[in-house]
Amino acid sequence: MAGSTFGTNFTITTWGESHGKGLGVVVDGCPAGLPISEEIIQTYLNRRKPGGIKYSTPRKEADKVQILSGTMDGLTTGTPISMVVMNETQRSKDYSEIASYYRPGHADYTFDAKYGFRDYRGGGRSSGRETIGRVAGGAIAIEILKTLGIQVSAYTYSIGDIEINYNRCQKENILESPVYMPDPEASLKAAKYLDDQIRNQDSVGGIVECVVTGMPAGIGEPVFDKLDAQLGKAIMSIGAVKGFEIGSGFMASKMNGSANNDAFFMNEDHEIEKMSNNAGGVLGGISDGSKLILRAAFKPTPSIARTQETVNKDGENISINIKGRHDPIIVPRAVVVVEAMTATTILDLLIANMSSRMDYLKDFYMK
Amino acid sequence: MAGSTFGTNFTITTWGESHGKGLGVVVDGCPAGLPISEEIIQTYLNRRKPGGIKYSTPRKEADKVQILSGTMDGLTTGTPISMVVMNETQRSKDYSEIASYYRPGHADYTFDAKYGFRDYRGGGRSSGRETIGRVAGGAIAIEILKTLGIQVSAYTYSIGDIEINYNRCQKENILESPVYMPDPEASLKAAKYLDDQIRNQDSVGGIVECVVTGMPAGIGEPVFDKLDAQLGKAIMSIGAVKGFEIGSGFMASKMNGSANNDAFFMNEDHEIEKMSNNAGGVLGGISDGSKLILRAAFKPTPSIARTQETVNKDGENISINIKGRHDPIIVPRAVVVVEAMTATTILDLLIANMSSRMDYLKDFYMK
Amino acid sequence: MAGSTFGTNFTITTWGESHGKGLGVVVDGCPAGLPISEEIIQTYLNRRKPGGIKYSTPRKEADKVQILSGTMDGLTTGTPISMVVMNETQRSKDYSEIASYYRPGHADYTFDAKYGFRDYRGGGRSSGRETIGRVAGGAIAIEILKTLGIQVSAYTYSIGDIEINYNRCQKENILESPVYMPDPEASLKAAKYLDDQIRNQDSVGGIVECVVTGMPAGIGEPVFDKLDAQLGKAIMSIGAVKGFEIGSGFMASKMNGSANNDAFFMNEDHEIEKMSNNAGGVLGGISDGSKLILRAAFKPTPSIARTQETVNKDGENISINIKGRHDPIIVPRAVVVVEAMTATTILDLLIANMSSRMDYLKDFYMK
Amino acid sequence: MAGSTFGTNFTITTWGESHGKGLGVVVDGCPAGLPISEEIIQTYLNRRKPGGIKYSTPRKEADKVQILSGTMDGLTTGTPISMVVMNETQRSKDYSEIASYYRPGHADYTFDAKYGFRDYRGGGRSSGRETIGRVAGGAIAIEILKTLGIQVSAYTYSIGDIEINYNRCQKENILESPVYMPDPEASLKAAKYLDDQIRNQDSVGGIVECVVTGMPAGIGEPVFDKLDAQLGKAIMSIGAVKGFEIGSGFMASKMNGSANNDAFFMNEDHEIEKMSNNAGGVLGGISDGSKLILRAAFKPTPSIARTQETVNKDGENISINIKGRHDPIIVPRAVVVVEAMTATTILDLLIANMSSRMDYLKDFYMK
Q1: Phi, psi for residue A75 in degrees, rounded to 5
Q2: Residues in C 171-210 with any Cβ partner in A closer than 8 A
Q3: How far is CA D141 from the centre of its chain?
Q4: Rounded Cα distance, D318 and D299, in Å
Q5: Under 8 Å between Cβ of D327 and D198
Q6: What end-to-end distance do the CA atoms of chain B give, in Å?
Q7: Any chain A CB within 8 A of the CB of B82?
Q8: Which end of chain B, N or C, is more open, meaning fewer C-beta atoms within 10 Å of its C-beta?
Q9: CB B33 to CB D358 under 8 A?
Q10: Cβ distance D156 to D335 under 8 Å?
Q11: What is the pLDDT along chain B (367 residues), one digit of tens a residue?
Q12: Which of C110, C130, C303 has the CB atom closest to D287's CB atom?
């Protein structure tokens, strides 16, 4: 089905394998006139890179982005924007072992089942490096949203059982935390907990939360391309995500209507507002003008140093030890990926909404 | 963006409002030669109707489906299948009150914000009746999957805090339970709890779980049209769903890799199997041949009898009492909707997978 | 591939067979607030019906359209608009003969080859009645375009060798001509020529020309969804069309650049205009603000009374005489179909263009 | 609308400007296991390059293709294939003149009208170099079709008034002719005629014909994604194409049904065949198993050396002389582009057809 393109009016088409020649993205449907540069895109890609020495792979990945098309004099031209990150180290490493068996929790087996064989070098297309294209493309969406007064901000909400406490959270803390937590106390605890994981040759999961402010009301296309449905797809498509929720999310399943309903009221600017935000900013699949709040549950890194049981391609039960050092957690590096996918989704639906009323078409074409 | 079509190769396009002339669906891309009839579709639609007297609206909705195209002599012909359910009661009721204010938890405000006005009669397009088209269309997908040995089965997993206990569950119990729970003990408890809700003029949320057996490995199209990503969209697009998870889901965020990884082993039929199924049947966005397990979190019914605070269209803060009787819970009637959306998604991806290898094309065209 | 939906932001999804229960269309992505009614749609459908007694089938087809959803108080609501025309005469005719062989020039053989069997009653889905959904859906697009000052007007350009002479053409003549020709002299000649065809038990082809005035410059999405590319698909998808051209079209292949290039100049309103319009209103796949001019070549009606050679389903060579009376020409009734498809295409691209510049998004969302 | 992607199941997404850093394509949905290499792709790209010294631009364009992803050990892996051609000469030429006015017959004006400004360097995205991505992507489609026994072959059918004579045509002649004509006599005449054009500082149009052999019956998805409709879009999307026809095409508009209908008969292999092929291999939008025959009408090269009238960006009427040498004709270099777009279209529909019957799904999944 050609599953490498996301979006309808604003699209990203990503490509590339972990240890191939490079990875990249084609951004299509980008409006003309947006200031953009390799420097701007790079700041986003850098957030994908190891956040702290301990909790991510020691691989040195420069991940320098090049823009090959779609801009002139620092502005987008309306034509497709092709961005590439070349892989610096296509090491002629020995992959024979990893090629011979199926790592638990990885996509080795399913890729073989689907395609008959797989690019086993570094995980191939199912590697976390696949997100490079998402982040580069999503960076453009984030920049457009900013211009429109919409801010997308994600952070680590929890690592294992350690959750942030909103009372201690400051946005400024996020990038300073080695685990991208806005709560310094939780961040410290989490750092220690991750040290334990490394010692235990284990890994752990966590949750990323994403908040979008400045959202206009009216965004989302019922009944299948609802804002929360498209976000659900966007977030679930990120590797290692096992759950998605919006607003009160799974908690809503245990709540009473009288508690979960958000009462409307007129605020002091005589605008409609909600007393609470259990809806997470979406009612009936359409944004209600409140903050958008979503969460993504990530499973633990499947690559762990411990001995694991599995099967090889000869159909034998074997024990394996996956070599190399691996992140004890996926979450921190995925924070910017969640932002990228969220922004891409929202922008696509912002564009879709521009034709929701005859008056909008008349204002545009009859002026 | 024309959000009323779901799918790529097998599509459903739904239409209709709660109190308009009718509701329906156009199913396109249905393979020729499937036995289908209004009777078969009706059995699915009937499950959407009130499951028990107490816990659903007393409205009498015959919801008789008519097939208007796409079949001959009881078989699908490969052309689009149009199905319609006419609304029997387009009561000339007085809607002036409900038209004048925004019900908390409903899409009244967001539809106005998007389209400038709304069809306020019975909720219009954002009514639960919108799912009629989904169920009629999804019924065809379910029938196709059955032919291929794939069974989709959903049920109520929890109502408020009352969860099923797998040890007490039998598939046969589902349709006998007034709340579609496979665990009779939990069902009884839930029934009593819903009685309380009615007395309290309140409502409650719950979780639907869906299990798919007989799934072949290899289904799902990385990186954006992954099986779990498409399911995420499908399920999140159902009204009132606030969360989606697959396999260990949100629990995975608290687990260690050593516990969450499912070890592979060769079973006695010398097939690759997994010791556990935290993955929920999906690795890297592709089915692994295990059972598919997903859950959808539904918020409580937003329409409750209690007095609620809100605003009216004149921008005044008001108190309202929504008239009429309403379901204290959405979940039981949504069970078949979850099945329908799950099946539609899987079928679309089963088709996409048929061209994943050159050998498949050669086998098909060179025979 | 689910080929029954056309468009991206404004879509029509058609369904129905010639002798099934009915035919119809779901229009999705229609902006809210357009005045629409069954009466308005009916005027378009009536133009699809026999234009003159002699040159079209004597079947009485009321083709009364019903709008089942998507409007309230005479205005579109932004939700999908479902329209249905029920077939009045599902005669229990004997189709055994027509089911047994493959009519030359028809889709009997190819439908069997694709789907394994076909709905042979009246041509099934490949009947000309399939265009009912196109016309009903396209009518809405035409109405929207009118609101935006864009007029779509098609007419018969030629029947066999008889072409219109622009010097004698008046738009008012079109609907008065039994063959929808704007040139009364050519119309008279064509009528006589068609009499000959009937006498000869034969049929003839012709060309429909469509002119669009009021087109803004800038419409079309390079490089694949160019205005002329999308129109090419739209027009070629109409049954019996074998050729499509825009502006000087096939003539351009014989012209010199110095003659085919349209010189730009500043007109008296100080707007950019072209001296000539060989481009047909499209340069680089984007409208240039001139009149859009396209032509569709229709083959002769394949159903003729003469004896024809063919094969039957038993693989025998046979001679056949197709019973019933048939139109000696397809063109006149197809005129409104060409308008419908042209308008649908243009509207979809008008919407797409609304996000072509950052300034447009800023104007829309930052006001 | 993000118009840079073509196809549904097998897609090409092209990007790049004439004088930007490079041009390329992402091919998605390519089945795994196809042997492919840069050498194979290069042979197609080389046919896009100047065919003969005299009739094409003297620019030296190495146009070396690199495959950056989607293959391993010389086989496609099922993941997206990214191919890039870097522009060698990004000359810091003075473009100020060409930036200041609108060349007749070019897309300068329409790009400005749409996007507010344009990349004027060498035509930017509307340059003929845009087809590099189409050819690289289409090459893969052609290779897949070959594997399935389907051959796509295009050639120059006419240049100005000079048409090929089928009696003198040999497929082997095509690549030997400086204008890619299979008829040596016509080729000679055309060559002389083009000499005249150069002397006259003029250009001329022509027609490309494309024949596809080995087509199975049953390909095409009614009613909008018919084989001829999708081909119409594919071909019309090529720059400079002003007309498209299939089979008897525009001639059909002047023919009688008795002459245009192709009689079926049982051939000596007891297969259904047609006596003639006015249909061009398509009936009802579905392939009939005969040769597919289509034609594309190209306008003359708009860039000519003669003085031309136009306007500049200051709104003044001016006379211009476009510098540099330009091809007197577009057609020969477009031959391989027509093949590429034809093959891409057919492959996409071949895949779609694999799910047209329940039996096909059963054969695939129940074996």
Answers
A1: -120, 145
A2: none
A3: 13
A4: 24
A5: no
A6: 41
A7: no
A8: C
A9: yes
A10: yes
A11: 799 999 999 999 999 999 999 999 999 999 999 999 999 999 999 998 765 445 665 555 589 999 999 999 999 999 999 999 999 865 667 788 889 999 999 999 999 999 999 999 988 999 999 999 999 999 999 999 999 999 999 999 999 999 999 999 999 999 999 999 999 999 999 999 999 999 999 999 999 999 999 999 999 999 999 999 999 999 999 999 999 999 999 999 999 999 999 999 999 999 999 999 999 999 999 999 999 999 999 999 999 999 999 999 999 999 999 988 789 999 999 999 999 999 999 999 999 999 999 999 999 999 7
A12: C110
ipTM: 0.97
Nearest Cα residue to C66 out of C34, C12, C13, C25: C25
pLDDT bracket for residue D53 (50, 70, 90):
very low
* B-C Cβ pairs (cutoff 8 Å, strict): 158
- Do B208 and B338 contact (CB within 8 A), yes or no? yes
Nearest to A17 among D3, D22, D79 (CB): D79
CATH code, domain with B357? 3.60.150.10
Q: Are the C-beta atoms of residues C45 and C24 closer than 8 Å to each other?
A: no
What domain range includes position D292? 5-365
3-state DSSP assignment of residue B313: coil
Contact D362 B147 (CB under 8 A): yes
Read off the pTM: 0.98
Whether C79 sits inside 8 A of B11 (CB atoms) is no
Structural domains counted in chain C:
1
Helix (H) or strand (E) holding D144: helix D131-147
The answer to whether D235 and D343 are in contact (CB under 8 A) is no
Spans in chain A with pLDDT lower than 50: 52-53
Closest Cα of chain A to D261: distance in Å? 37
Task: Name the residue among D130, D252, D285 with its Cβ closest to that of C223.
Answer: D130
Residue among C13, C17, C115 whose CB faces B26 most closely: C13
Q: Which residues contact D232 (CB under 8 A, 6 or more apart)?
A: C232, C233, C235, C236, C237, C244, D244, D246
Q: How far apart are CA D335 and CA D208, in angstroms?
A: 6
> Distance between CA atoms of A30 and C211, rounded to whole angstroms?
31
Closest chain C C-alpha to B272 CA, distance in angstroms: 33
> pLDDT tens digit string along C91-145?
667 788 889 999 999 999 999 999 999 999 988 999 999 999 999 999 999 999 9
Set of chain D residues whose Cβ sits within 8 Å of the Cβ of A21 = 66-69
A243 torsion bin: left (phi>0), alpha (psi -120 to 50), beta (else): beta
Contact A362 C148 (CB under 8 A): yes
Candidates D10, D215, D226, D365: best to mutate against B (most CBs of B within 10 A) is: D365
User: Which residues on B lie below 8 Å from A341 (Cβ)?
Assistant: none
Integer Cα distance of B324 and B57 in angstroms = 9
Residues 115-134 of C with CB under 8 A from B: 115-119, 121, 124-125
Residue C275 contacts D where some CB pair is shorter than 8 Å:
yes
Do C221 and D357 lie within an 8 Å CB cutoff?
no
